[in-house]
Design a protein that fits this description.
Blueprint lengths: L4 E4 L1 H10 L12 H7 L1 H10 L6 E2 L5 E6 L7 E8 L2 E9 L6 H11 L1
Parallel strand pairs: 1-5
Antiparallel strand pairs: 2-3, 3-4, 4-5
Length: 112
C-alpha cells in the first residue's frame, strides 16, 4: 500500500502553540518551529508508512496514538484518526524536559 497522506489539524497546531514558545529560548529551549522542523517529519513519516502498525488503539474506536521519542522531546504522543485513507493528527502531548536545540544538534552531528 502506498504511503498515506498525513494532515495536521488546527487543533494540533493550537496545542503545539500552547506547549512551545514562538522563538527559541536563549538557553536553547526549542520553539514550535524547531519542533516542526526536527521532530514532526519523523512522526509524519511513521504515520504515513504504517498507520495501524506504528500506533496503538485508544478508548475512542476511531482514534489511535503514536508514541515515540524525538530529537527535542524525550517522549511525544500524537493522537490521530484515519478518514478516507488520510491520517488526521488532532492532538499532541509531550513529556516535560525539553532538550536544548544547540546541544542536541551537536550530538546528532557526532553520531553521523
Amino acid at each position: 500500500m502506498p504511503d498515506r497522506r498525513v494532515r495536521f489539524t488546527d487543533t494540533f497546531f493550537d496545542r503545539l502553540d500552547s506547549l512551545f514558545t514562538d522563538e527559541r529560548g536563549v538557553d536553547g529551549r526549542p520553539s514550535a518551529t524547531d519542533f516542526l522542523l526536527y521532530d514532526v517529519p519523523r512522526v509524519r513519516d511513521r504515520l504515513a508508512d504504517d498507520f495501524e502498525g506504528n500506533t496503538l488503539a485508544t478508548d475512542d474506536p476511531d482514534g489511535r496514538v503514536y508514541i515515540g521519542s524525538g530529537l527535542l522531546v524525550p517522549t511525544v504522543a500524537v493522537f490521530a484518526v484515519c478518514v478516507d485513507d488520510v491520517v488526521e493528527v488532532i492532538w499532541i502531548s509531550i513529556q516535560s524536559g525539553l532538550r536544548p536545540v544547540a546541544g542536541r544538534r551537536l550530538q546528532c552531528r557526532l553520531a553521523d
